[in-house]
Amino acid sequence: MAVNIYECLFLIEPNKASSDWDNSMATANGMIERHGGEILFSRHWGEPKLAYPIKKFRKGGYLLTYFRSDSQGIPKMEADFRLAVDLILRHMVVKLHPSIADRILAQLHGTHSEEEGSGEEGAAEAAGEEGAKEETKQEAAETAKA
């Protein structure tokens, strides 16, 4: 059993997200833990307007979670995510490359220990910006080749 680090982005139903965020987060993270996952980092990532309606909702709450799990537990987790239709509108689980996972987690934990409270948000945004910069560089390279 290979133990990997995963990133999961949940789109939480907006009524649940706005009324009881802590319970929604605990429920989603509990699904991961039920199948042997270890939560490394989890945070609310905003409630933007969606590009198109999903199940007649125009807004949703994003929950960004990093967790460690063996690869055999992921299909079971995703089955649970799909069955939680009253809470989770969409989800996406991505296996992180070990070198990227180490950098992201070091940045999240390093910033958090220096600045209590606001460190989590800054580290997660920095991790997201780093990925966006890499994607932009790749897109520019592909455009230049074309």
From TrEMBL:
User: Region (Disordered) spans which residues?
Assistant: 107-146
Q: Which UniProt keywords apply?
A: Ribonucleoprotein, Ribosomal protein, RNA-binding, rRNA-binding
Q: Which GO terms describe its molecular function?
A: rRNA binding; structural constituent of ribosome
Pfam families (alphabetical): Ribosomal_S6 (PF01250)
The taxonomy runs: Bacteria, Pseudomonadati, Planctomycetota, Planctomycetia, Kolteriales
Protein name as catalogued:
Small ribosomal subunit protein bS6
* Ranges of compositional bias, category Basic and acidic residues: 130-146
The UniProt entry's GO biological process terms, in alphabetical order, are:
translation
State the organism named in the record.
Kolteria novifilia
Gene name, please?
rpsF
- The family this protein is said to belong to: Belongs to the bacterial ribosomal protein bS6 family.
- Domain of life the protein comes from: Bacteria
Q: Name one GO cellular component term.
A: ribonucleoprotein complex
Function description:
Binds together with bS18 to 16S ribosomal RNA.
